[in-house]
Structure of Calcineurin-like phosphoesterase domain-containing protein:
Amino acid sequence: MYSPYHRRPLPDYFLSSPLVALLYPFHQLLLRLRGAPRLPPPGVQPIRVVCISDTHTLEWPDVPDGDLLIHAGDLANDGSVREIQAAVDWLRSLPHRHKVVICGNHDSYFDARSRCDEDREENGSFADVSSSTASIRSLDDLNAASRIDWGDIHYLQHSSVELSFPSTSPISSTTPLTSSNSRSITVYGAPQIPALVSFGPEHAFTYPPYHDAWSRTVPPETDILVTHTPPQAHLDMSPVYSTGCPNLLAEAWRVRPALHVFGHIHESAGCEPVFWDNAQLAWERLCASRRPRARYSRFMALAGLWRDLFDPSGWVDAAKVLVYGVLGVIWAQVWGGETRDGGWMVNAACMYRASGKLGNPPRVINL
């Protein structure tokens, strides 16, 4: 029995859906040929965003310099205050102007249901907090004071922060910014993840995979969205064995952030441009339509070839992925058109697979 968090052997992708397995590399190539999905505004200093996630008590030895450091959850393993504070102390030592952190399912202190025995309040009980409530409400809403010393770090849990950056030339981190020399972005962070396997009570912020924990939760003015789970069909072991959340994907379409940072799926670390267009929509439909096949045995997956042959809607979507992708390349590289409302999706998981070692490098995006 394969875990949904481990990549399947390559033949399984072809057995389940030859159409999307063959289309995938062409789709990725066209995405890259289209160029940057969004450029910094003209005449201003780009904001250099450094993205990490899933460090699991370990420290990356050489985090790149930048204006904003984002950690997308799983600072710890057992989720104790002890482990989390050690990770926070490391992040506090880094020189970035702004730092934003959310928690992940291993950071159990932040979900009152999941805390280690050593961290439970003597005079507080959260046994009556339901799974669905705890996954969408913030720690402050539960009237529980945090024991983590965050220092200059912005910790987000179903909340936003507006950050200011120099708009012209680099300024010392000690120099105050004024409205005339600053550029502001809004970052929203949320921790919840779909429980695709039978997680134990020590895992924080889990919700049933078909429960909608996302609709209308992200403020529309969000420039950077930080979640622990990926959205469906993007850096989540797509196209067939997708582990991302479809409701989060719908929320990303509604808000269309310039940058969406997540982690959780170690084996899909990387960066992917998104253009919020017909090519992307067709690709996501193909992934969603093949996702049920992930539940089939390898023997049952042998029927994938025949299902693909007699799936006219799948062939139409495959054609749209190619045609609209090629048109996007022509628009950007031949006609010199510029994409203004695209963005980046970044799976910033630093943990290399299930090795217990950090092997996926931090990702850097200029906004």
Q: What stands out?
A: The chain has two domains: 1-33+281-336, 36-275+339-366. The chain is about 25% helix and 15% strand. The longest helix spans residues 312-334.
